[in-house]
Amino acid sequence: MTQRLVSVWQPFFLGSESLEAAVAAATELEELGYARIWFSAGFDADVPQRYRELLDGTSRIGVASGIVSIWHSSPAAVAAYTQDAERAHPGRFLLGLGTSHAVIVEGDGTDYTKPYSKMVSYLDALDAAGLAPERRVLAALGPRMQTLSRDRSAGAHPYFVPVEHTAEVRAALGEGPLLAPEVAVVLEADPDAARATARQYTAGYLALPNYTNNLRRFGWTDDDLAGGGSDRLVDALIPWGTPEQVAAGINKHFQAGADEVAIQVLNGGDASAFPSEAFRALAAQLI
Protein backbone atom coordinates (compact mmCIF):
# COMPACT_ATOMS: atom_id res chain seq x y z
CA MET A 1 0.00 0.00 0.00
CA THR A 2 1.57 3.23 -1.15
CA GLN A 3 -1.13 5.78 -0.34
CA ARG A 4 -3.55 6.70 2.42
CA LEU A 5 -6.10 9.02 0.92
CA VAL A 6 -9.23 10.22 2.69
CA SER A 7 -12.01 11.10 0.25
CA VAL A 8 -15.70 11.95 0.22
CA TRP A 9 -18.65 10.09 -1.32
CA GLN A 10 -21.76 12.23 -1.14
CA PRO A 11 -25.00 12.28 -3.22
CA PHE A 12 -25.31 16.00 -2.46
CA PHE A 13 -22.96 16.81 -5.32
CA LEU A 14 -25.30 15.40 -7.95
CA GLY A 15 -28.53 16.22 -6.10
CA SER A 16 -27.82 19.87 -5.33
CA GLU A 17 -29.63 22.18 -7.73
CA SER A 18 -27.25 24.97 -6.76
CA LEU A 19 -23.92 24.83 -8.56
CA GLU A 20 -22.68 27.59 -6.26
CA ALA A 21 -23.43 25.46 -3.17
CA ALA A 22 -21.80 22.39 -4.71
CA VAL A 23 -18.62 24.27 -5.63
CA ALA A 24 -18.50 25.90 -2.18
CA ALA A 25 -18.71 22.47 -0.52
CA ALA A 26 -16.04 21.08 -2.85
CA THR A 27 -13.76 24.03 -2.12
CA GLU A 28 -14.12 23.48 1.62
CA LEU A 29 -13.27 19.79 1.24
CA GLU A 30 -10.23 20.74 -0.82
CA GLU A 31 -9.07 23.14 1.88
CA LEU A 32 -9.58 20.46 4.55
CA GLY A 33 -7.27 18.14 2.63
CA TYR A 34 -9.69 15.55 1.26
CA ALA A 35 -8.24 13.80 -1.78
CA ARG A 36 -11.26 13.24 -3.97
CA ILE A 37 -15.03 13.69 -4.31
CA TRP A 38 -17.08 10.70 -5.47
CA PHE A 39 -20.74 10.64 -6.47
CA SER A 40 -23.03 8.65 -8.71
CA ALA A 41 -23.55 9.59 -12.34
CA GLY A 42 -27.20 8.60 -12.09
CA PHE A 43 -28.92 6.66 -14.84
CA ASP A 44 -29.24 9.02 -17.80
CA ALA A 45 -27.36 8.52 -21.04
CA ASP A 46 -25.20 11.60 -20.59
CA VAL A 47 -22.46 11.77 -17.99
CA PRO A 48 -23.41 14.67 -15.66
CA GLN A 49 -21.63 17.94 -16.25
CA ARG A 50 -21.37 18.35 -12.48
CA TYR A 51 -18.03 16.46 -12.47
CA ARG A 52 -16.53 19.04 -14.83
CA GLU A 53 -18.17 21.90 -12.98
CA LEU A 54 -16.51 20.82 -9.75
CA LEU A 55 -13.16 20.39 -11.48
CA ASP A 56 -13.50 23.83 -13.04
CA GLY A 57 -14.46 25.39 -9.70
CA THR A 58 -11.60 23.93 -7.65
CA SER A 59 -7.85 23.70 -8.10
CA ARG A 60 -6.52 20.43 -6.63
CA ILE A 61 -9.13 18.01 -5.38
CA GLY A 62 -9.91 14.98 -7.51
CA VAL A 63 -13.40 14.13 -8.76
CA ALA A 64 -14.65 10.62 -9.55
CA SER A 65 -17.78 8.92 -10.79
CA GLY A 66 -19.06 6.33 -8.41
CA ILE A 67 -20.37 4.99 -10.70
CA VAL A 68 -21.24 5.44 -14.38
CA SER A 69 -23.60 2.61 -15.33
CA ILE A 70 -22.33 0.70 -18.36
CA TRP A 71 -25.94 -0.01 -19.34
CA HIS A 72 -26.89 3.66 -19.58
CA SER A 73 -23.92 5.63 -20.97
CA SER A 74 -22.19 4.58 -24.18
CA PRO A 75 -18.45 3.83 -24.25
CA ALA A 76 -17.93 6.50 -26.90
CA ALA A 77 -19.61 9.21 -24.81
CA VAL A 78 -17.82 8.13 -21.64
CA ALA A 79 -14.42 8.02 -23.33
CA ALA A 80 -14.90 11.46 -24.85
CA TYR A 81 -16.02 12.93 -21.51
CA THR A 82 -13.08 11.44 -19.61
CA GLN A 83 -10.53 12.45 -22.23
CA ASP A 84 -11.88 16.00 -22.28
CA ALA A 85 -11.67 16.20 -18.47
CA GLU A 86 -8.12 14.84 -18.59
CA ARG A 87 -7.04 17.50 -21.09
CA ALA A 88 -8.56 20.29 -19.00
CA HIS A 89 -7.52 18.94 -15.58
CA PRO A 90 -4.74 16.35 -15.94
CA GLY A 91 -4.91 13.55 -13.41
CA ARG A 92 -7.92 14.90 -11.52
CA PHE A 93 -10.89 13.00 -13.00
CA LEU A 94 -11.26 9.28 -12.35
CA LEU A 95 -13.93 7.30 -14.19
CA GLY A 96 -15.68 4.76 -11.99
CA LEU A 97 -17.65 2.14 -13.93
CA GLY A 98 -20.15 -0.41 -12.70
CA THR A 99 -22.71 -2.95 -13.82
CA SER A 100 -25.51 -1.39 -11.72
CA HIS A 101 -28.45 -3.61 -10.72
CA ALA A 102 -31.04 -5.68 -12.54
CA VAL A 103 -34.02 -3.87 -11.04
CA ILE A 104 -32.69 -0.52 -12.28
CA VAL A 105 -31.53 -1.68 -15.71
CA GLU A 106 -34.61 -3.75 -16.48
CA GLY A 107 -36.81 -0.93 -15.20
CA ASP A 108 -35.41 1.09 -18.11
CA GLY A 109 -36.34 -1.66 -20.57
CA THR A 110 -32.92 -3.30 -20.96
CA ASP A 111 -32.29 -7.00 -20.43
CA TYR A 112 -29.79 -7.40 -17.58
CA THR A 113 -27.89 -10.43 -18.83
CA LYS A 114 -24.22 -11.38 -18.49
CA PRO A 115 -23.08 -8.21 -16.71
CA TYR A 116 -19.49 -9.45 -16.55
CA SER A 117 -19.36 -9.98 -20.31
CA LYS A 118 -20.99 -6.59 -20.78
CA MET A 119 -18.21 -5.00 -18.73
CA VAL A 120 -15.51 -6.78 -20.74
CA SER A 121 -16.95 -5.57 -24.04
CA TYR A 122 -17.37 -2.06 -22.61
CA LEU A 123 -13.71 -1.96 -21.60
CA ASP A 124 -12.76 -3.22 -25.06
CA ALA A 125 -14.67 -0.28 -26.55
CA LEU A 126 -12.96 2.18 -24.20
CA ASP A 127 -9.59 0.77 -25.23
CA ALA A 128 -10.53 1.18 -28.88
CA ALA A 129 -11.48 4.80 -28.16
CA GLY A 130 -8.04 5.39 -26.69
CA LEU A 131 -9.03 5.78 -23.03
CA ALA A 132 -6.10 4.76 -20.84
CA PRO A 133 -6.88 2.07 -18.25
CA GLU A 134 -5.18 4.31 -15.66
CA ARG A 135 -8.12 6.73 -15.86
CA ARG A 136 -10.79 4.20 -14.82
CA VAL A 137 -11.70 1.93 -11.90
CA LEU A 138 -14.39 -0.72 -11.53
CA ALA A 139 -17.05 -1.21 -8.87
CA ALA A 140 -15.77 -4.68 -8.02
CA LEU A 141 -17.73 -6.86 -5.61
CA GLY A 142 -17.20 -10.48 -6.66
CA PRO A 143 -13.91 -12.25 -7.43
CA ARG A 144 -14.21 -12.10 -11.24
CA MET A 145 -14.81 -8.37 -11.26
CA GLN A 146 -11.98 -7.88 -8.79
CA THR A 147 -9.61 -9.66 -11.18
CA LEU A 148 -10.93 -7.62 -14.10
CA SER A 149 -10.36 -4.40 -12.17
CA ARG A 150 -6.76 -5.47 -11.59
CA ASP A 151 -6.12 -6.43 -15.21
CA ARG A 152 -8.11 -3.79 -17.12
CA SER A 153 -8.21 -0.67 -14.93
CA ALA A 154 -6.41 1.33 -12.26
CA GLY A 155 -8.17 -0.58 -9.49
CA ALA A 156 -11.43 -1.06 -7.61
CA HIS A 157 -14.13 1.09 -6.01
CA PRO A 158 -16.34 -1.28 -3.98
CA TYR A 159 -19.51 0.07 -2.40
CA PHE A 160 -21.46 -1.11 0.68
CA VAL A 161 -18.87 -3.57 1.91
CA PRO A 162 -17.46 -4.69 5.28
CA VAL A 163 -13.78 -4.63 6.20
CA GLU A 164 -13.43 -8.31 5.29
CA HIS A 165 -14.28 -7.46 1.70
CA THR A 166 -11.61 -4.76 1.61
CA ALA A 167 -9.04 -7.35 2.70
CA GLU A 168 -10.25 -9.79 0.04
CA VAL A 169 -10.02 -7.20 -2.73
CA ARG A 170 -6.52 -6.15 -1.68
CA ALA A 171 -5.41 -9.77 -1.91
CA ALA A 172 -6.97 -10.06 -5.37
CA LEU A 173 -5.46 -6.80 -6.63
CA GLY A 174 -2.01 -7.31 -5.16
CA GLU A 175 0.17 -4.31 -4.46
CA GLY A 176 -0.13 -1.32 -6.78
CA PRO A 177 -3.72 -1.05 -8.05
CA LEU A 178 -5.94 1.48 -6.29
CA LEU A 179 -8.41 0.15 -3.73
CA ALA A 180 -10.93 2.83 -2.78
CA PRO A 181 -14.00 1.48 -0.97
CA GLU A 182 -16.96 3.67 -0.10
CA VAL A 183 -17.76 3.59 3.61
CA ALA A 184 -20.93 5.19 4.99
CA VAL A 185 -20.79 6.58 8.53
CA VAL A 186 -23.08 8.11 11.14
CA LEU A 187 -21.78 10.74 13.55
CA GLU A 188 -24.09 9.89 16.43
CA ALA A 189 -23.05 8.37 19.76
CA ASP A 190 -26.46 7.02 20.81
CA PRO A 191 -26.69 3.42 19.53
CA ASP A 192 -30.42 3.41 18.80
CA ALA A 193 -30.35 6.75 17.00
CA ALA A 194 -27.21 5.86 15.05
CA ARG A 195 -28.57 2.50 13.89
CA ALA A 196 -31.92 4.05 12.97
CA THR A 197 -30.14 6.55 10.71
CA ALA A 198 -27.97 3.79 9.28
CA ARG A 199 -31.00 1.62 8.46
CA GLN A 200 -32.54 4.40 6.38
CA TYR A 201 -29.52 3.80 4.14
CA THR A 202 -28.99 0.04 4.45
CA ALA A 203 -32.63 -0.95 3.83
CA GLY A 204 -32.53 0.05 0.17
CA TYR A 205 -29.22 -1.64 -0.55
CA LEU A 206 -30.24 -4.85 1.22
CA ALA A 207 -33.04 -5.17 -1.34
CA LEU A 208 -30.46 -5.49 -4.15
CA PRO A 209 -29.14 -9.01 -4.86
CA ASN A 210 -25.70 -7.82 -5.97
CA TYR A 211 -25.06 -6.57 -2.45
CA THR A 212 -26.82 -9.29 -0.48
CA ASN A 213 -25.14 -12.06 -2.47
CA ASN A 214 -21.80 -10.43 -1.78
CA LEU A 215 -22.51 -10.22 1.94
CA ARG A 216 -23.58 -13.86 2.03
CA ARG A 217 -20.13 -14.82 0.77
CA PHE A 218 -18.80 -13.50 4.09
CA GLY A 219 -21.22 -15.50 6.21
CA TRP A 220 -24.08 -13.06 6.71
CA THR A 221 -27.43 -14.82 6.94
CA ASP A 222 -30.99 -14.05 5.87
CA ASP A 223 -31.70 -12.99 9.46
CA ASP A 224 -28.83 -10.49 9.26
CA LEU A 225 -30.10 -9.11 5.95
CA ALA A 226 -33.74 -8.65 7.03
CA GLY A 227 -35.35 -5.50 8.37
CA GLY A 228 -32.63 -3.11 7.25
CA GLY A 229 -29.95 -5.32 8.76
CA SER A 230 -29.22 -6.86 12.14
CA ASP A 231 -27.38 -4.73 14.68
CA ARG A 232 -24.29 -6.82 13.99
CA LEU A 233 -24.47 -6.21 10.23
CA VAL A 234 -25.22 -2.50 10.60
CA ASP A 235 -22.26 -2.14 12.93
CA ALA A 236 -20.00 -4.01 10.48
CA LEU A 237 -21.02 -1.88 7.50
CA ILE A 238 -21.54 1.57 9.05
CA PRO A 239 -19.02 3.02 11.52
CA TRP A 240 -20.96 5.21 13.96
CA GLY A 241 -20.32 7.15 17.14
CA THR A 242 -18.09 10.07 17.99
CA PRO A 243 -15.66 11.40 15.38
CA GLU A 244 -12.94 9.38 17.11
CA GLN A 245 -15.00 6.17 16.96
CA VAL A 246 -15.95 6.72 13.32
CA ALA A 247 -12.31 7.40 12.43
CA ALA A 248 -11.36 4.12 14.08
CA GLY A 249 -13.87 2.33 11.86
CA ILE A 250 -12.46 4.03 8.76
CA ASN A 251 -8.94 3.09 9.80
CA LYS A 252 -9.91 -0.60 9.82
CA HIS A 253 -10.33 -0.37 6.03
CA PHE A 254 -6.90 1.20 5.68
CA GLN A 255 -5.46 -1.55 7.86
CA ALA A 256 -7.18 -4.11 5.61
CA GLY A 257 -5.43 -2.71 2.55
CA ALA A 258 -7.41 0.27 1.27
CA ASP A 259 -5.36 3.06 -0.33
CA GLU A 260 -8.30 5.45 -0.22
CA VAL A 261 -11.58 5.47 1.70
CA ALA A 262 -14.49 7.46 0.29
CA ILE A 263 -16.55 8.51 3.31
CA GLN A 264 -20.29 8.99 2.96
CA VAL A 265 -21.80 10.83 5.90
CA LEU A 266 -25.40 9.74 6.45
CA ASN A 267 -27.66 12.57 7.52
CA GLY A 268 -31.11 11.03 7.48
CA GLY A 269 -31.48 10.75 3.73
CA ASP A 270 -31.38 14.49 3.06
CA ALA A 271 -29.30 14.65 -0.12
CA SER A 272 -29.94 18.39 -0.46
CA ALA A 273 -27.94 19.25 2.68
CA PHE A 274 -24.16 19.01 2.81
CA PRO A 275 -22.89 17.75 6.21
CA SER A 276 -19.96 20.14 6.41
CA GLU A 277 -19.58 19.98 10.20
CA ALA A 278 -19.22 16.21 10.05
CA PHE A 279 -16.54 16.38 7.38
CA ARG A 280 -14.65 19.01 9.36
CA ALA A 281 -14.72 16.78 12.43
CA LEU A 282 -13.56 13.75 10.47
CA ALA A 283 -10.80 15.72 8.77
CA ALA A 284 -9.43 16.60 12.19
CA GLN A 285 -9.20 12.88 13.00
CA LEU A 286 -8.08 11.41 9.68
CA ILE A 287 -6.17 13.99 7.66
UniProtKB/TrEMBL annotation:
What does the record give under GO molecular function?
oxidoreductase activity, acting on paired donors, with incorporation or reduction of molecular oxygen
> Which residues belong to the signal peptide in this entry?
none
What is any Pfam family matched here? Bac_luciferase
Q: Which GO terms describe its cellular component?
A: cytosol
Cited InterPro entries? Bact_Lucif_Oxidored (IPR050766), Lucif-like_OxRdatse_MSMEG_4141 (IPR019922), Luciferase-like_dom (IPR011251), Luciferase-like_sf (IPR036661)
Xref: Gene3D superfamilies: Luciferase-like domain
Q: Which residues form the Luciferase-like domain?
A: 17-128
Protein name, entry field: Luciferase-like domain-containing protein
Q: Which organism is it from?
A: Actinoplanes friuliensis DSM 7358
